[in-house]
Amino acid sequence: MKERDWDLVHKVHLKGTFMVTRAAWPYMRSQKYGKVINTASVSGIFGNFGQANYSSAKLGLHGLSNTLAKEGASKNIHVNTVAPMAATRMTKGLLSEELFSSIKAEHIVPMVLWLVHDTCESTGKLFEVGGGWMAQLRW
């Protein structure tokens, strides 16, 4: 892997998330409320051949989420991570057609809707989501 490929992927996924969150954070702090959902990947959790740059950036997002969850706790800011497995351009051709057709991106939505709901107190958690299946992961 070329260093440029490593840097570009980290810049988009990890730094991009940092920049967006940094811009929103002061508003959430001042209103003493906020919800942040970062998107990791099952490639980040379990690894995937040929994706060292992508998988490390995506799991790095969960590390960022964990820290933000601690920093936001006193201001009622909840931060969680979802690691979806969904049919996308990246997964096309890597999965069997049967599996690909069963893991639609819209299956991720209910998990995200729950995490952003006013009554959800979850923070600093990692959820693997795909094909209508959801689980909280712990190390």
Which overall shape is indicated by the principal axes computed on the Cα atoms? globular
End-to-end distance: 29 Å
| Largest β sheet strand count, sense and barrel closure | 4 strands, mixed
What is the H/E string? HEHHEHHEE
- In spatial order, strands of the major sheet run 1-2-3-4
CATH H-tier superfamily: NAD(P)-binding Rossmann-like Domain
Q: Indicate the proportion of strand residues.
A: 15-25%
How big is the Rg?
Answer: 16 Å
CATH architecture: 3-Layer(aba) Sandwich
Count of runs of 4 or more consecutive helical residues: 5
Residue-averaged pLDDT: 90
Quote the CATH topology: Rossmann fold
Give me a quick take on this structure.
With 139 residues, the chain is α/β, with parallel strands linked by helices. The protein has helices spanning 3-31, 42-46, 52-72, 97-102, 109-116, and strands spanning 34-39, 77-84, 126-130, 133-137.
